[in-house]
Amino acid sequence: MKMMLMISMVAVMLLAASCALPVQKSTDYPVTLITVDPGHFHAALVQKEMYPTLNPTVYVYAPAGPDVEGHLARINRFNSRSENPTQWKTKVYRGDDFLQKAMAERKGNVVMLSGNNRKKTEYIKTFVDAGIHVYSDKPMCIEKDGFELLKEAFVAAEQNNVLLYDIMTERYLIHAILQRTLAQNPDVFGTLQTGTAENPAIVKESVHHFCKYVAGQPLLRPDWYFDTTQQGEGIVDVTTHLVDLVQWEAFPDQIIDYTKDIQMLSAQRWPTMLTREQFDRVTGMSGFPDFLQTQLNADGVLPCYANGQIDYRIKGVHARVKVQWDYQAPEGAEDTHFSLMRGTLSDIVIQQGADQKYKHELYVKPVNSADMDKIGSALYKAILELQREYRGVMMLRDGDRWHVLIPDRYRIGHEAHFAKVTEKYLRFLEEGKMPEWEVPNMITKYYITTTALEMAK
């Protein structure tokens, strides 16, 4: 009887074990992440969500200090949040020899880079030379010598069969997606105008703020963020996104060769002035560090060259990108974006100002007011097609233009875009390749930004 009971208990235990979910070992994950010197909050945003193919154990290598501690605190907040908490496990090495240690241990097969940009291109080249994939925050280079090294890194990546990719979150803004789609509709947009230097056919502008909140917390930026020799000037930093959108929206899936398709016209830069009090508030420090002292003006104010404008031609089309950094947004406002694409039939415009209550809104404005109904009819057909994928998208007449109404459920925030880009990169890794236009267009993008910096100086 006892033997029968024991057999029954064993049978029950085996049945329970067979019904339990399988435990996934770390070796079962095709991708393991190594995070190197995470000085920028974007490094943590990549881990705001979990991914089925990404090992939940992440290896961090960094010098000891506030940068890495801030990164770990952000990951901990994601793990401890009440709604949909993450389950990241972090293995940390702190030391001045962090790069050598990461190379020697090779705990993962993908390196995440988001921090001080002064050495980022060198890090990129080091890891791709070692046959390790690199997933990099923008910018991947901040000056002309860095651009030359980046080109070498792309060659090495191809030779070593690894994927080098930068994080272009702006491609996942719903209004940018719809602007891109409508600009390819000849009945709504016509064809892209060529424009002029004074009146470009493509204009993209963005306004950002040093004082802001991320993941519900006040954002403390590292002191080096305000040293443009370490962070990079605005003309080579945020403009990376804008240049990318020009290529991605106006010439989708096309290779852009900077040696043939780009003509640089002009570039300019100017500073945002930061007082000591403002600097202290956004860094949590007390006073400017020694490496910034020589950059202060006679009044003890820091001129931070965070602003820039680039005018150029791309495949014969005049384009302009402009970035501006203010200290803090007005009450109720946020970072803003303006985008204009001029077609032969209509202009497709994104605005995000006070009239839009600081929400991105998309408009289609006929070039000829007499064509309002004709363009409206074509736009109605285009909207019906869009509703197949974006249910609830509508159109409404707004004076001399059509307003494309986008439901809030598609307006995911900047932080959520990092998961979208990461999911895309993980698919690239699974397939072992990227679209053929991605690499040449990344090279072209950084040619434009670094060349513009030289011109502006």
Mean pLDDT: 93
Query: Uncertain runs with pLDDT below 50, 5 residues or more?
Result: 1-26
- Give the strand content: 15-25%
Strand order of the largest sheet: 10-11-12-7-13-14-15-17-16
What structural class do you assign from the helix and strand content? alpha/beta
CATH architecture of the largest domain: 2-Layer Sandwich
Q: What is the assembly state of the chains in this entry? A: single chain
Give the C-level CATH assignment of the largest domain.
Answer: Alpha Beta
Q: From the alpha-carbon coordinates, what is the Rg to the nearest angstrom?
A: 25 Å
- So how many helices? 15
Number of strands: 17
Q: Under CATH, the topology of the largest domain is which?
A: Dihydrodipicolinate Reductase, domain 2
Please give the alpha-carbon distance between the first and last residues: 92 Å
Largest sheet: 9 strands, mixed
